[in-house]
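S1.2 Input.
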Amino acid sequence: MITQNCTPLIRLLALLISATSFACERAPEAPQPDAAGPPTLAPKTDAAEPPKDEVSSRHAVKFTGADGQTRSFSLAELIEHVPTHEVTVHDPLYDKEKTFQAFSLRELIPYGFGQTAEALADQDIVLGALDGYTVPTHGARLFEEGGYAAFADEPPKGWEPIEAKKADPSPLYMIWVKDSQQNEQTHPRPWQLTEFALSSHEALYAHASPADLPEDDPAQRGYALFRQNCIVCHSVNLSGGRVGPEMNIPQNITEYRSRDFVLAYISNPEQFRYSQMPAFSHLSEAELASIWSYLEAMKAQKIELPGK
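S1.3 Output.
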Protein backbone atom coordinates (compact mmCIF):
# COMPACT_ATOMS: atom_id res chain seq x y z
CA MET A 1 0.00 0.00 0.00
CA ILE A 2 1.33 3.40 -1.00
CA THR A 3 -0.08 6.78 -0.08
CA GLN A 4 1.25 10.24 -0.75
CA ASN A 5 2.05 11.77 2.59
CA CYS A 6 2.61 15.47 3.26
CA THR A 7 1.21 15.44 6.80
CA PRO A 8 2.64 17.32 9.79
CA LEU A 9 4.25 14.00 10.84
CA ILE A 10 6.65 14.24 7.91
CA ARG A 11 7.56 17.81 8.77
CA LEU A 12 8.14 16.70 12.36
CA LEU A 13 10.46 13.96 11.07
CA ALA A 14 12.37 16.56 9.09
CA LEU A 15 12.79 18.72 12.17
CA LEU A 16 13.88 15.74 14.26
CA ILE A 17 16.40 14.64 11.63
CA SER A 18 17.79 18.16 11.40
CA ALA A 19 17.95 18.55 15.17
CA THR A 20 19.60 15.16 15.61
CA SER A 21 22.28 16.00 13.06
CA PHE A 22 22.97 19.32 14.82
CA ALA A 23 23.11 17.63 18.21
CA CYS A 24 25.55 15.06 16.90
CA GLU A 25 27.82 17.77 15.53
CA ARG A 26 27.79 19.63 18.83
CA ALA A 27 28.32 16.60 21.07
CA PRO A 28 31.32 16.75 23.42
CA GLU A 29 34.35 14.81 22.31
CA ALA A 30 34.88 13.09 25.67
CA PRO A 31 32.40 11.61 28.19
CA GLN A 32 31.61 13.56 31.34
CA PRO A 33 33.49 12.39 34.45
CA ASP A 34 30.34 11.16 36.18
CA ALA A 35 29.01 9.31 33.15
CA ALA A 36 27.46 5.98 34.08
CA GLY A 37 28.94 4.16 31.12
CA PRO A 38 28.91 3.99 27.32
CA PRO A 39 25.62 4.57 25.48
CA THR A 40 23.61 1.41 24.97
CA LEU A 41 23.74 1.77 21.18
CA ALA A 42 27.53 2.12 21.12
CA PRO A 43 29.02 -1.19 22.29
CA LYS A 44 32.66 -1.29 23.26
CA THR A 45 34.95 -1.99 20.35
CA ASP A 46 38.64 -1.93 19.51
CA ALA A 47 37.90 -0.16 16.23
CA ALA A 48 39.04 3.40 15.75
CA GLU A 49 36.59 6.25 16.26
CA PRO A 50 34.69 7.14 13.05
CA PRO A 51 35.80 10.31 11.28
CA LYS A 52 34.19 13.37 12.83
CA ASP A 53 32.65 14.37 9.50
CA GLU A 54 30.88 10.99 9.23
CA VAL A 55 28.33 11.93 11.89
CA SER A 56 27.69 15.38 10.44
CA SER A 57 27.20 13.92 6.93
CA ARG A 58 25.04 11.04 8.11
CA HIS A 59 21.85 12.67 6.91
CA ALA A 60 23.26 14.27 3.77
CA VAL A 61 22.59 12.84 0.31
CA LYS A 62 24.85 13.69 -2.62
CA PHE A 63 24.10 13.80 -6.34
CA THR A 64 27.32 13.81 -8.36
CA GLY A 65 27.30 14.63 -12.06
CA ALA A 66 29.53 13.07 -14.71
CA ASP A 67 31.67 16.23 -14.51
CA GLY A 68 32.34 15.59 -10.82
CA GLN A 69 30.19 18.50 -9.62
CA THR A 70 28.14 17.56 -6.53
CA ARG A 71 24.80 18.82 -5.24
CA SER A 72 24.33 17.92 -1.57
CA PHE A 73 21.08 18.01 0.40
CA SER A 74 20.14 17.30 3.98
CA LEU A 75 17.24 14.94 4.52
CA ALA A 76 15.28 17.85 5.94
CA GLU A 77 15.78 19.75 2.66
CA LEU A 78 14.70 16.77 0.59
CA ILE A 79 11.59 16.25 2.71
CA GLU A 80 10.74 19.91 2.22
CA HIS A 81 11.01 19.82 -1.58
CA VAL A 82 10.36 16.24 -2.77
CA PRO A 83 6.93 14.55 -2.37
CA THR A 84 6.90 11.87 0.34
CA HIS A 85 4.94 8.64 0.44
CA GLU A 86 3.95 6.07 3.04
CA VAL A 87 4.86 2.65 1.67
CA THR A 88 3.77 -0.64 3.23
CA VAL A 89 5.48 -3.70 1.78
CA HIS A 90 6.80 -7.12 2.76
CA ASP A 91 10.50 -6.37 2.98
CA PRO A 92 12.84 -9.29 2.12
CA LEU A 93 15.76 -8.02 4.22
CA TYR A 94 13.61 -7.61 7.33
CA ASP A 95 11.51 -10.64 6.28
CA LYS A 96 8.27 -9.07 7.43
CA GLU A 97 5.78 -6.38 6.54
CA LYS A 98 7.16 -2.90 7.07
CA THR A 99 5.81 0.63 6.70
CA PHE A 100 8.28 3.27 5.57
CA GLN A 101 8.22 6.97 4.83
CA ALA A 102 9.85 7.23 1.42
CA PHE A 103 10.64 9.23 -1.69
CA SER A 104 9.76 7.85 -5.10
CA LEU A 105 13.02 7.40 -7.02
CA ARG A 106 11.26 8.89 -10.05
CA GLU A 107 10.85 12.13 -8.09
CA LEU A 108 13.94 12.14 -5.87
CA ILE A 109 16.66 11.57 -8.47
CA PRO A 110 15.58 14.25 -10.98
CA TYR A 111 15.28 16.76 -8.14
CA GLY A 112 18.73 15.86 -6.82
CA PHE A 113 20.45 16.24 -10.18
CA GLY A 114 18.34 19.19 -11.28
CA GLN A 115 17.51 17.37 -14.52
CA THR A 116 14.38 15.82 -15.99
CA ALA A 117 13.63 12.12 -15.65
CA GLU A 118 13.70 11.89 -19.44
CA ALA A 119 17.26 13.23 -19.56
CA LEU A 120 18.41 10.81 -16.84
CA ALA A 121 16.59 7.68 -18.03
CA ASP A 122 19.42 6.62 -20.36
CA GLN A 123 22.21 7.43 -17.89
CA ASP A 124 24.33 4.98 -15.93
CA ILE A 125 24.00 5.78 -12.22
CA VAL A 126 26.23 4.41 -9.46
CA LEU A 127 24.68 4.05 -6.01
CA GLY A 128 27.06 4.68 -3.11
CA ALA A 129 26.64 3.71 0.55
CA LEU A 130 28.19 5.10 3.72
CA ASP A 131 30.52 2.12 4.13
CA GLY A 132 31.96 2.46 0.62
CA TYR A 133 29.72 -0.14 -1.04
CA THR A 134 28.82 0.82 -4.61
CA VAL A 135 26.54 -0.72 -7.23
CA PRO A 136 26.14 0.48 -10.82
CA THR A 137 22.65 0.58 -12.24
CA HIS A 138 20.71 2.40 -14.92
CA GLY A 139 18.32 5.34 -14.93
CA ALA A 140 15.60 3.37 -16.69
CA ARG A 141 15.72 0.74 -13.94
CA LEU A 142 15.61 3.29 -11.13
CA PHE A 143 12.67 5.09 -12.72
CA GLU A 144 10.48 2.01 -12.84
CA GLU A 145 7.20 2.49 -11.01
CA GLY A 146 7.62 0.83 -7.63
CA GLY A 147 11.11 2.06 -6.71
CA TYR A 148 11.51 4.09 -3.49
CA ALA A 149 14.17 5.44 -1.17
CA ALA A 150 12.94 5.08 2.42
CA PHE A 151 14.10 7.79 4.83
CA ALA A 152 12.18 6.81 7.98
CA ASP A 153 10.93 3.64 9.64
CA GLU A 154 7.70 3.27 11.56
CA PRO A 155 7.41 5.98 14.24
CA PRO A 156 7.96 6.34 17.11
CA LYS A 157 10.56 3.57 17.30
CA GLY A 158 12.80 4.90 14.54
CA TRP A 159 14.94 2.74 12.29
CA GLU A 160 15.01 -0.96 13.08
CA PRO A 161 18.55 -2.36 12.63
CA ILE A 162 18.97 -4.27 9.37
CA GLU A 163 20.56 -7.63 8.48
CA ALA A 164 23.11 -9.53 10.54
CA LYS A 165 25.24 -6.43 11.08
CA LYS A 166 22.29 -4.78 12.87
CA ALA A 167 23.15 -1.60 11.04
CA ASP A 168 21.25 1.66 11.00
CA PRO A 169 19.97 1.90 7.38
CA SER A 170 19.77 5.72 7.32
CA PRO A 171 19.92 8.08 5.59
CA LEU A 172 18.25 6.16 2.74
CA TYR A 173 17.27 2.53 2.18
CA MET A 174 16.21 1.52 -1.33
CA ILE A 175 13.02 -0.54 -1.51
CA TRP A 176 10.96 -2.05 -4.32
CA VAL A 177 7.27 -2.89 -4.03
CA LYS A 178 6.34 -4.94 -7.10
CA ASP A 179 6.61 -8.74 -7.24
CA SER A 180 8.73 -8.43 -10.39
CA GLN A 181 11.24 -6.24 -8.51
CA GLN A 182 12.24 -8.62 -5.73
CA ASN A 183 15.44 -9.97 -7.31
CA GLU A 184 18.24 -8.06 -5.60
CA GLN A 185 20.58 -8.68 -8.53
CA THR A 186 18.37 -6.70 -10.92
CA HIS A 187 16.82 -4.34 -8.36
CA PRO A 188 19.49 -3.52 -5.75
CA ARG A 189 18.55 -2.64 -2.16
CA PRO A 190 21.47 -0.66 -0.75
CA TRP A 191 21.06 0.75 2.74
CA GLN A 192 22.97 3.65 4.28
CA LEU A 193 22.60 5.08 0.76
CA THR A 194 24.31 8.47 0.58
CA GLU A 195 25.15 9.12 -3.07
CA PHE A 196 23.81 8.91 -6.60
CA ALA A 197 26.59 9.45 -9.16
CA LEU A 198 26.35 9.71 -12.94
CA SER A 199 28.98 7.81 -14.88
CA SER A 200 29.60 7.05 -18.53
CA HIS A 201 29.16 3.49 -19.69
CA GLU A 202 32.63 3.77 -21.25
CA ALA A 203 34.06 4.28 -17.76
CA LEU A 204 31.95 1.60 -16.10
CA TYR A 205 32.11 -1.05 -18.81
CA ALA A 206 35.24 -0.24 -20.77
CA HIS A 207 35.61 -3.68 -22.37
CA ALA A 208 31.92 -4.31 -23.01
CA SER A 209 31.30 -1.39 -25.37
CA PRO A 210 31.16 -2.25 -29.09
CA ALA A 211 33.88 -0.33 -30.91
CA ASP A 212 33.99 1.10 -34.44
CA LEU A 213 30.29 0.62 -35.12
CA PRO A 214 28.00 3.40 -36.39
CA GLU A 215 25.42 4.74 -33.95
CA ASP A 216 22.55 3.33 -36.04
CA ASP A 217 23.98 -0.19 -36.05
CA PRO A 218 21.59 -2.69 -34.40
CA ALA A 219 24.45 -3.80 -32.15
CA GLN A 220 24.57 -0.32 -30.57
CA ARG A 221 20.88 -0.55 -29.71
CA GLY A 222 21.50 -4.04 -28.38
CA TYR A 223 24.32 -2.75 -26.19
CA ALA A 224 22.02 -0.08 -24.73
CA LEU A 225 19.43 -2.77 -23.92
CA PHE A 226 22.11 -5.08 -22.50
CA ARG A 227 23.25 -2.29 -20.17
CA GLN A 228 19.70 -1.59 -19.04
CA ASN A 229 18.67 -5.20 -18.46
CA CYS A 230 21.61 -7.60 -18.32
CA ILE A 231 24.96 -6.12 -17.35
CA VAL A 232 24.22 -5.88 -13.63
CA CYS A 233 24.40 -9.71 -13.58
CA HIS A 234 26.36 -10.68 -16.73
CA SER A 235 29.77 -9.52 -17.91
CA VAL A 236 31.23 -9.10 -21.39
CA ASN A 237 35.01 -9.28 -21.44
CA LEU A 238 34.77 -9.33 -17.63
CA SER A 239 33.07 -5.90 -17.60
CA GLY A 240 29.79 -6.13 -15.71
CA GLY A 241 28.18 -8.35 -13.10
CA ARG A 242 29.35 -11.64 -11.62
CA VAL A 243 26.05 -13.38 -10.85
CA GLY A 244 25.39 -14.83 -14.30
CA PRO A 245 27.77 -16.31 -16.88
CA GLU A 246 30.37 -14.28 -18.76
CA MET A 247 29.13 -13.71 -22.32
CA ASN A 248 32.26 -13.31 -24.47
CA ILE A 249 35.39 -15.06 -23.23
CA PRO A 250 36.82 -17.53 -23.77
CA GLN A 251 33.86 -18.25 -26.07
CA ASN A 252 31.11 -15.87 -27.06
CA ILE A 253 27.68 -17.26 -26.23
CA THR A 254 26.70 -17.08 -29.90
CA GLU A 255 29.48 -19.59 -30.63
CA TYR A 256 27.90 -22.36 -28.59
CA ARG A 257 24.20 -21.48 -28.31
CA SER A 258 21.71 -20.99 -31.12
CA ARG A 259 20.01 -17.65 -31.75
CA ASP A 260 16.53 -19.09 -31.13
CA PHE A 261 17.59 -20.66 -27.84
CA VAL A 262 19.31 -17.55 -26.47
CA LEU A 263 16.44 -15.20 -27.31
CA ALA A 264 13.82 -17.60 -25.94
CA TYR A 265 15.88 -18.00 -22.76
CA ILE A 266 16.14 -14.24 -22.26
CA SER A 267 12.41 -13.89 -22.73
CA ASN A 268 11.46 -16.68 -20.30
CA PRO A 269 14.28 -18.57 -18.52
CA GLU A 270 11.93 -20.75 -16.47
CA GLN A 271 10.73 -22.62 -19.54
CA PHE A 272 14.22 -24.16 -19.53
CA ARG A 273 15.33 -24.24 -15.89
CA TYR A 274 14.75 -22.57 -12.54
CA SER A 275 17.31 -19.91 -11.70
CA GLN A 276 17.72 -16.43 -10.28
CA MET A 277 17.41 -14.91 -13.74
CA PRO A 278 14.13 -13.00 -14.18
CA ALA A 279 12.04 -13.14 -17.34
CA PHE A 280 12.41 -10.27 -19.81
CA SER A 281 9.10 -10.87 -21.53
CA HIS A 282 8.64 -7.12 -21.99
CA LEU A 283 11.36 -7.06 -24.66
CA SER A 284 10.03 -7.09 -28.21
CA GLU A 285 11.31 -9.42 -30.92
CA ALA A 286 13.16 -6.49 -32.49
CA GLU A 287 14.82 -5.64 -29.14
CA LEU A 288 15.83 -9.24 -28.56
CA ALA A 289 17.27 -9.36 -32.07
CA SER A 290 19.37 -6.27 -31.37
CA ILE A 291 20.78 -7.88 -28.21
CA TRP A 292 21.80 -10.86 -30.33
CA SER A 293 23.45 -8.45 -32.81
CA TYR A 294 25.42 -6.92 -29.94
CA LEU A 295 26.58 -10.30 -28.65
CA GLU A 296 27.63 -11.35 -32.15
CA ALA A 297 29.55 -8.11 -32.66
CA MET A 298 31.55 -8.68 -29.48
CA LYS A 299 33.04 -11.91 -30.86
CA ALA A 300 35.55 -9.77 -32.73
CA GLN A 301 36.43 -7.77 -29.60
CA LYS A 302 37.60 -10.39 -27.13
CA ILE A 303 40.20 -9.26 -24.63
CA GLU A 304 43.42 -11.13 -23.98
CA LEU A 305 43.93 -12.41 -20.44
CA PRO A 306 47.53 -12.81 -19.21
CA GLY A 307 48.51 -16.46 -18.89
CA LYS A 308 45.43 -17.74 -20.74
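S1.4 Remarks. Residues 2-26+52-199 form one domain.
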